[in-house]
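sry for the spam today, last one i promise. struct tokens for design, 346 residues
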């Protein structure tokens, strides 16, 4: 009795291969053909074997005499266990992987690049062992998403730095610097730039550009660590109100009379959370202005989150605190006084 056949990486035609990979999210099979992971045309068979085409896949299978042992089909998690790590690369096994297309998608999402010698290599700062741990759970290691590394487009980088005023000779901070899009513009304008970035792949990019990177979580740092700055240009992470937290923390690093120019989400403008209301009130107290950024400005960076650009100048002299008469007007006046005191403390 003949078996159903063992699948191969050979396809009857290029169009059949395209259809097969399109079901896994690829536009076509051009990349697989180019890197040699699939072949268009019949495979070589041995005496006693028969070539068949797998229905609905357009992929050749080799039919042999059936083995009477019932073998449970391997899942993607089973096949992930067959991968190995060597020299900080993920090495493919010699045997055919039924779920190769999906495993390759996960590896590429994690930053991997396929080599025709049968392994995936990763950029500096991405550890193959960490990728493997995620792949064996059926997940990709998406460091870009986790670190909120949605880099600032060039046009917006120039707008942010322009709003920070003349930068030549000024001490400028870019916290959570990513690939340094803002720092690059500020440095080109003659600023003395300090960058903070704790996601290792981004930090390595910054070092290659010649920056002395402070590889720490910005929120863990204080003015005693970094000093004060004439200007801060920033595009912080947005999720879970991180932009509010980061911007509030940035104000501590700004010299009196210094400028803050920063990109945030628009959520604090429309949200009903206490954090949103307090942040908007703080911006009002500090005399901030803001301008919405065109929709889709960050599409190429991987996000469609609506954004705006905030600009403010820190007061050079203490603001007038509400009088006792104003405070007697109730809770609203008390909250305003508290925000004023907070602004002064920053």
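last one done:
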């Amino acid at each position: 009795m003949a078996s159903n056949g063992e699948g191969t990486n050979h396809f009857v035609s290029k169009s059949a291969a395209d259809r097969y990979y399109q079901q896994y999210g690829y536009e076509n099979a051009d990349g697989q053909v180019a890197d040699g992971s699939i072949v268009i045309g019949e495979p070589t068979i041995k005496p006693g074997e028969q070539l068949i085409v797998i229905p609905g896949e357009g992929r050749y299978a080799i039919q042999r005499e059936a083995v009477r042992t019932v073998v449970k089909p391997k899942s993607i998690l089973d096949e992930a266990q067959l991968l190995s790590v060597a020299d900080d690369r993920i090495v493919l096994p010699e045997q055919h992987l039924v779920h190769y297309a999906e495993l390759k998608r996960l590896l590429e999402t994690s930053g991997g690049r396929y080599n025709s010698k049968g392994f995936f290599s990763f950029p500096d700062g991405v550890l193959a062992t960490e990728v493997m741990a995620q792949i064996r759970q059926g997940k990709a290691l998406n460091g870009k998403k986790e670190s909120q590394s949605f880099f600032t487009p060039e046009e917006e980088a120039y707008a942010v730095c322009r709003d920070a005023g003349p930068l030549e000779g000024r001490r400028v901070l870019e916290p959570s610097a990513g690939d340094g899009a803002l720092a690059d513009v500020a440095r080109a304008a003659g600023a003395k730039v300090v960058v903070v970035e704790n996601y290792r792949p981004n930090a390595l990019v910054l070092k290659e550009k010649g920056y002395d990177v402070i590889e720490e979580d910005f929120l863990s740092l204080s003015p005693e660590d970094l000093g004060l700055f004439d200007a801060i240009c920033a595009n912080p992470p947005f999720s879970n109100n991180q932009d509010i937290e980061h911007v509030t923390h940035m104000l501590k690093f700004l010299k009196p009379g210094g400028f803050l120019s920063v990109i945030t989400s628009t959520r604090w403008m429309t949200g009903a959370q206490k954090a949103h209301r307090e942040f908007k009130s703080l911006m009002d107290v500090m005399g901030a202005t803001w301008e919405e950024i065109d929709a889709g400005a960050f599409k190429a960076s991987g996000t469609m989150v609506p954004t705006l650009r905030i600009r403010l100048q820190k007061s050079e002299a203490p603001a007038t605190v509400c009088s006792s008469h104003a405070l007697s007007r109730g809770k609203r006046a008390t909250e305003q006084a508290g925000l004023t005191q907070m602004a002064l403390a920053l």
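Confidence is low (pLDDT under 50) at residues 145-149, 319-337. ok im logging off now
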